[in-house]
Structure formats: structure tokens, C-alpha cells
Amino acid sequence: MENGFIEEGEKAPSSKSPMHKVDPGEPPHLTWQRRLNSNEKVPTGFTLRFQEIKDNAPVGIRWYLQFKQEAAKGRHEFSAGSIGRSYRGEFQRFTLFPGTSEDGPVLANQFSVFVSRPNGKTNSTVLSPRNPQLPKQSTASGIESWDWNLKGENSTYHALFPRSWTVYEGEPDPELRIVCRQISPFVPHNYKESSFPVSVFTFMLSNSGQTSADVTLLFTWANSVGGDSGFSGHHFNSKMMTKDGVHGVTLHHKTANGQPPVTFAIAAEETADVHVSECPCFLISGKSDGMTAKDMWNEIKKHRTFDHLDSNKTSPSEPGTSIGAAIAATLSIPSGSTRTVTFSLAWDCPEVRFYEKTYHMRYTKFYGSQGDAAVRIAHDAILEYAQWETEIEAWQRPILEDKRLPEWYPITLFNELYYLNAGGTIWTDGSPAMQSLATIKGRKFSLDRARSDLKYNNGATNENDTAVEILERMTSTLEQIHSSVRSDAALGTNLLQNGEENIGQFLYLEGSEYIMWNTYDVHFYSSFALLMLFPKLELSIQRDFAAAVLVHDPDRMKILYDGRWVPRKVLGSVPHDIGFNDPWFEVNAYNQFDTARWKDLNSKFVLQVYRDVIATDDKNFAQAVWPSVYMAMAFMEQFDKDGDGMIENEGFPDQTYDCWSVKGVSAYCGGLWVAALQAASALAHEVGDHASANYFSVKYQKAKAVYDKLWNGSYFNYDNSGSSSSASIQADQLAGQWYARACGLSPIADEDKVKRTLEKIYNFNVLKVKGGGRGAVNGMLADGRVDMSSIQSREIWPGVTYALSASMIHEGLVDMAFQTAAGVYEAAWSQEGLGYSFQTPEGWNTDDEYRSICYMRPLAIWAMQWALMKPKPKLFAEEMKHEAREDSLYLKQHAAFSKVAQILKLPEQGPKSLLQTVYDYTCKRFPW
Predict the structure, then answer these.
(1) Which reaction does it catalyse (predicted)?
(2) Is 896 within 8 Å of 764 (Cβ atoms)?
(3) Is residue 108 classed exposed, middle or buried when 0-12, 13-18 and 19+ CB atoms within 10 A define those classes?
(4) Which distant-in-sequence residues (6+ apart) come within 8 Å of 464 by Cβ?
């Protein structure tokens, strides 16, 4: 395994493989670091110029009206399955299920420490600096009464995803060093443990004093899923069964608004050195009988354990009150000695619901879907985390120790992976959705009447047997009813062949503000992370889109750009996204433009599919998706207006830069098309369709010649429309060349021209913006001024900067690549930057204003790693051995291809109505 990618014939590390031993007390030498008392820089959001407000007023008003309509339906929800933690130690960003995303911290969720020495000296504190939301002085009985004594000036947080370390140097006891290490099971090529909703926290305590230290570590957790959810009432806690020395408490949360319940488990491991005790319930806020947060805290200060509690009985919480639980680990550390304590946090929310459909999460294949898995997950994590960490260490160490890399690069490479956890990720088990009776409407049906095989004993069945049997019969019947519906959905599982593993289906959001699943034009950039680390999930996403190409959905949706009504999804087009409210069944949640007319999506589909084939050598995948690839290419034929082999843009933002208009032959979409033709030819050869391979190869040569006409002597023009922006230097103009190289294909342009273009982009788009300290601006005029023609032309997109850097690496310009990408690090991740760490936005402008915080595209840094690996894919194009030719076979193929293309052709767009024209004019004239 080199640089995290498993080479052909190589197996992923197993538990029996010899591995580098992890030092639990020391962070790696390369990590993202912050002092706990650091002042956070508050990012500044972007502002629109007057002309941009005027130009976008019609779209803005239509968007607002649509938002109101959707909100009235209870829609606009988002996702699912993670809990974040800040460098100060606060648990935040609760995104546990569709319906809520709570960014604010739950302040009762804390680790705390109590230290006493034989001389009577004591220290106690929450291991997080006091949050400003807490009253500074209070006699109340809530968490504000705890000892918030940590200053943080001698404590440092280190992050290297998926692990982090917080080193408390003499805080609160000057002779006690505490290292808290957090581990999540994000293990490349591991499709079991990597799906588990759990984190492990190990504390290494080193006593440098002359006397022993009696220490209690306290882990408190609120029965809450963030926000005000803890006050809704009817939640309850209970002690969990002790097994293998693992003690803990479960917190059962009765979620409101029709969402499935959630169960948390907090646990700790008892050893010969460590005694564990539990407080099943205490009152965080509100009025109720029982132990308060202050009482609980004082109990530990007085007794060091919860062994003296009078009662462990708990009752459901009352509405308006908030409850929590605590677990304490007590130990004595001799002078000059070190001891370790291990905790875990798990949560079990086995279902995810979309539009009356219920899916099960991936981890339920291993722990069941009854909602009782949190205890077992927390238990198993404590016993197994060492193996996860060993495998994580083996994956990361070669990159961390590669002296050829600048120090910032490995830190940023690994930490940008935060988005695969924080991006609203949902990983299902791949089984069909369970649908409610409401979706069946008037259809008549009956459950299977076959007599049960259950064994009855004195009139009773084994526990849950009846319910399980009925549920299985209902599931089987509803499965048959909905099977025809699923055939019309974008479900890639339908493309799996007999015997192929169903790894589940994977969803992640475009961004925290752009809430669409698996946005495809952006996944084009970010997909390298999944391909290198979890290639089976990458193939799962591509199967979904391959299935979507074959779907036609005539339901009408309104386009915000011009007010037209268009089909939601047309046959042959690649959807912009896999949906939002009802993913896989209702694709294209995006409706700012009619993306059936976009010029990048189909090309990006073909390129990603081909890249994934050569990366995985998965022949079944290639065969399954080839019809979709062919159809995607045929669909694009309609955009070659003059028959020269090159597609043309249509004068609106018909590609991923959806605020930046383009017309005619363009460097971005044209280059993608040239590369896609070559990829289609190579893929056809791989699946044995040699006639199509020759056909697409001929078309590739024609399109390549047209593309070359954009060359102006220094770079490729933005487009050939002759507009004021036509000569703009686009940072992303060589996206097609980048992917061609990443796929092992031939260059789409003369190599000297490619290098000269990259040098031009570096000297203008990179160096002329704050000396190269921000990344590459999307558009730059030939006179050295930023292209201000649109919002996006004047922005710097970190994901595009990473992609540009990857292209530079492919062309041998490695130093230039790292200097270019370093600007993103300086802006987003450095101590002196703009405050975007672990929330890298889509972009920022030259005024350091961000747009769309926490975004998918910056995962493209893994494209740099792909380029650095210099993979040696199977070069199908070279294997063909014969020159593409326009012979009788070509003409026959062209006739058949043209027939398919003609069937897929979109209807001509009619003129706008008078009312629509007046409406748009009014919006632009009076932008309210």
C-alpha cells in the first residue's frame, strides 16, 4: 500500500499484518495545531456588487418563493450520522438524521478531571475553556456551577483526521501531563468498522511529581441531539450491562417530529489500575426531583467515584427539563508513572427516512436495526480501537514521512477528509427502502398467508418472534409491490450482477448551504478521495448515476433562471444530483437552471467512470455502466450545432460555474468533451465494443482539432464568442487535460501548449492575487486584472486550485503545484488565515469574503495525491494498435449513433411569454 492506495494484487492490511506500533502519548510531528486559548477568527461572508444584485434579482425572487412553498410542505431538511468536536473540546455539529443539523455545542457534553495529592492539594476543572454562553457567576445548580478553571494557555489541540490529540501540559495540575487522544474508525478499504457511529477517547496521564496523584476522569453526556431537543421530555437513561470490564450508561432519546429515536452509550474500561462508576441520571436544567448537575459534580469532588450514590433508579424526563448521565474513571498514578484510561461514545440511529421511505444504515448489517446497538458498539470499540489505529497509522505514515512533500501538505491532505464525516454523510445498507402503506394508495394486496414455522410453547413464542415474522412478511409483500417503482429509480444496486457485493449506497451533501445529495459536477473534483480510500463506495455512486442516465422523469419542475417548466429528468442526461427530499427517486433537486442542457455533466460522467475502471480493474462495473456511457455521449450530440465534432455552450451558465456565462466552443466544457470522447473510446475497447471504440476515436480527433483553435499563443481562450470575457484566463481551462492524464490517456492538446498555459495561470491567476497567498482566482484578464464579469469569475475556489495543482503535477511542474496549493493552506488552514479550518468553503473572493462554508469540492486535494502516486493504469488507447479511421464501419456506427442521438434530442426552446418577459424586466429594474 503506497500513499494510502492499494496496488493491483495487494490486499488491505489485516489484523495479522505486522504494523508500526502506535505511541499513544505523542501526536505525530505533523498536525494542525491550536492553543486552547486561541481566539477564533470569524469568517466574513461574501457580498454582492450592485450589478450582481441586479442581474440575479429574478432568480433570487423565484428562489425565495420556492423556498416558502417547500418549507410549507415540511421539506428542506438535512442529514445524518455524525457529531463534531471543536479544538476547545466542545461537542457540536450534531447531524444525526434528516430533519436537524445543530451546529452549536451541547455544553454539558464534557470531559473533566479531578486531581488530589497527599499534601491535600486538589485541582479540578472541565477540560474545556469556559464558554461565553455560560453565566460567569451563578449559584444555580446547573452546569455553570462546575469548575470551569481551564485557561488553555498551556494546552494544545492537534488534528490529523481521523485522529486528534489534546495535550494538557500541567493544566490543571502543574505536575500532571494529560493527553486525550480521539480516534474514529475511518479506516481506508474497511467497509465494516468504518461505518460504525462511534469514537474512542484514550487519556494518557503522566505524573512527573514527587508524590502520587489520585485522579478521576469524568465523562458527562446530555440526553440531547443538539439544540433544544433535550427539553422535549420523555427521555430516559439506564446503566448498561458490564462485560469484559466495560461499564457505561445508555441515554434513550425520544426524537420529536416523526424522526426515529436515538440511543447514546457512554462507556469506560475498568482495568487493574482503573475503577469505573456510573451516574445514570442527573438534572442539567429545569425543575425535577433527583440529583442536579451541581450535586453530581460535588459527589465526585467529595468521593472521587459514584459508588456512594443512594439510588440508580431513573425515570423519564419531564417536558421542559434536560437530563444527562456521567461515567467516572478513578485511578492512582505513582510518582514518575503513566497510566491510561479509555472511554467510548456510540450512538444508534438505525433508520434514515426520506419521503415515506425508510432505509437502514450500513452498520445495521453487523449490529441489527432494532435500536439496541449502541451498547455493543461502545463495548466493541473499546476492545478493538487499537487495531483501527494501527491500520490508520500504517496508511498515513508513508505520507507523513515523505521528505519530498512540504510540511503543510500531509496535514491538509488528511484534514480535508473531515468532509466525508461532516458533510451530512449517509451510508445505507443498500437494501430496498421500506415504504409506508401511504405510498401504496389504492392498490389491493394481501400478506402471505402461509402458516408460521414458529415454535409455540404453552401459547407463547420466543421474545419478538411474532413481530419479526409479521415484519418479514410485510417487508416481502411491500417489496414486491414497489419493485416496479424501483426499476424507474436511480438505484445503482439494480446494476449489480449476481454474486457482486452490495456495499450499500452513499450520500453526501454538496455543502452545508447547498443541500443536494452527491452533486455530480462537484463530485467530479472530490471523488478522488473516495476512489483512493473507499473505491467500492465510489463505484456505488457511479452506478447510481449510471442508472439515472437510463431514467426519464416527466414530472415538471420550475426553473429559477427563466421561469420555464421542464421535465425533472430526461433520458440520456446525467442529473446534477441524486436528489434531496427523495434521493434516487426524485433526482435533480437543483433547479436554478435546466441541467439537461449543461455541457459538463455527461462528459464528467464518462471520465469518472473510465477513471474508476482503470483504477479498480472492475470488469463487471465496466460492462454494467457501458450502455449508460454510450447514451450519455449520444445525448451530447445535439449540442454540436455545426457538426464539427465539438459541442458548443449556449450563452448561459451551463456548467459547474453556474453564475458565469459561456457561449460557443469553450476551454472548460470543450476540453472535457475532448477527453470524454477519448475515454469513451478506451472504455468501449475494454468492454469489447471495438466498433464503438473506433467511432469515438475518430470523433475525438475531430474535436481535438477544434479545441486547438482556442489557443491564442499563451493559453486557451475562455470561449470563442468574442465577448468581453472570451479572452479571460480561466484557472480551470485544462480540466479535460487534467482528467485525461489522471486516466492515463493521451494529452488533449500539445504538451508544450499545456505547460505554457499552466505557467500563464500560475503567473496571473495565482501570483497576482496577494502574492500567491490565496490560491488561483477563477478568472483573470490578460492585462492582469481580476475578471469581475460574474460572482464566480472573481472567486478563488480551493477545490479548483487543488485540481489545477494536480494538473501541474501530471505535467511535471511539481514545485509550481505545491506553491499554487499552498495559497489554499494559507487562507483556510494556517493560524494567520481566514478561519476556515474544518469548514473549507466553496470559495472566497479577493476581499477575503467566503461563499458556501463547509463544501464538498476541496476534497480535490486527493487528486494531487493521485497525481503524485503516478499510477500506471492499463492504457487501453495504446492497446488498440490501429489508427482510428472513417471507413464503412465508422459510417455504419455513425448512422446508429445518430439515431440514438436523435431520439434523445431535447425539444427546441420556445420564446418567453410576454408576462414572463415583463416579470424578469421588473425584477432587474427594481431589485427589492
Answers:
(1) a beta-D-glucosyl-(1<->1')-N-acylsphing-4-enine + H2O = an N-acylsphing-4-enine + D-glucose
(2) no
(3) buried
(4) none
What does the alpha-carbon distance between residue 463 and residue 466 come to, in Å, rounded to a whole number?
8
Within the chain, how many helices (H) and strands (E) appear?
Answer: 21, 31
Q: What is the pTM of this model?
A: 0.90
Note the pLDDT tens digit of each residue in 319-375.
Answer: 999 999 999 999 999 999 999 999 999 999 999 999 889 999 999 999 999 999 999
pLDDT at 475: 66
Instruction: Output the DSSP codes for 635-650.
Output: HHGGG-TTSSS---EE
Go through the domains of the chain in sequence order and give each one's CATH number: 81-397 (2.70.98), 432-495 (no CATH), 506-510+519-876+884-918 (1.50.10.10)
Of 157, 152, 158, residue with least CA distance to 29: 158
* Residues sharing a CB contact under 8 Å with residue 880, sequence separation 6 or more, in sequence order: 681, 685, 693, 697
Q: What is the pLDDT of residues 127-168, one digit of tens each?
A: 999 988 887 765 688 999 999 999 999 999 999 999 999 999
Give the separation between CA 307 and CA 300, rounded to whole angstroms: 10
Query: Given its phi and psi angles, is residue 687 left (phi above 0), alpha (psi -120 to 50 degrees) or beta?
Result: alpha
Give, for 368, the enclosing helix (H) or strand (E).
Answer: none
Number of Cβ within a 10 Å radius of residue 678: 30
In whole angstroms, how large is the CA radius of gyration of the chain? 29
760: amino acid identity, one letter: K
- The edge-to-edge listing of strands for the beta sheet with 351-354 is 351-354, 357-360, 434-435
Chain mean pLDDT for the chain: 88
Predicted local confidence at residue 914, as pLDDT = 54
Rounded-to-integer distance, Cα 524 and Cα 24, Å = 37
